[in-house]
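Q: Could you fold this chain for me?
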Amino acid sequence: MPRPRPIQWPDNAKICVTFIIPWEVWPDNYATRGSLQRVSHPLPPENAVFKQNMAAVTEREYGDRVGIWRIMDMFARHNLKVTFLMNGKKVEQFPDEVKEFQAQGHEFSSECYEHEYAFMYTREEERKSIQDTVAAFKNVLGAPPTGYLSPGHASTDNTLDLVAEAGFVWWADPLNSDIPYTVEAGGRKVAVVPYNVPGCNDYSTYGGGRTPRDLLQIMKDQFDYLYWEGEQGAPKFFAFNLHPFVSGVPYRTKIVDEFIKYAKGFSDVWFARRLEIANWVLEQGY
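A: Sure. Below is the predicted structure, expressed as structure tokens.
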């Protein structure tokens, strides 16, 4: 493929930094052997009387009770607006909370209705899940979600058409670029704003051998090299995701806080919500 066309950010920023909060709800069979969802706890054996590991379930609930508030308090201290990524069912579960965050100026994007992988759906099932999510957002927040990500960014051959059909501004499933670009489907253009770079995300410290301090160094290295490329005339964007049950744990929140302070120490950094990025890309014709 030809070398990507350089992107120019507003005010000639050398790098764009964006944060996304996947605040999700899992199927009822989460933490059982019948579920496809990732889990770091051992699952009950086939002959177990009770089939679900409640430690895994309550660990995810930590994000709802504690983690989301710690993360949002941190972003408030830094006066940063971020992008939420929520299932329709999750928005319905926490209507007052999402309205509060919406009033603060944060963006709301979506996955499908609950965290189920799209490759388990027929085209019509995937469409219905997306439609149910859009309806939930409109009902609770008074507006449709701005962008879309398939759970696990595991899209199907149908996803882009369904995203365009539903009117999303941006789509995050492709992991094939570190600059946003546009695609066309259903007679309209959609901005691709990739979710993250594999390995540079909070989930890489969960249930593995990598520590948050290891991740902080990865984040700095990623930022430094992309910033240098921006200095050479080819700006990029740095994306990072924060699951409330992961990054909402104090020792993980701390390294995100440190990274924000680090990035703020550089000039010409554009901190943006994904909708701002997508609108810029579409307006400039990238």
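A (continued): The mean pLDDT is 94.
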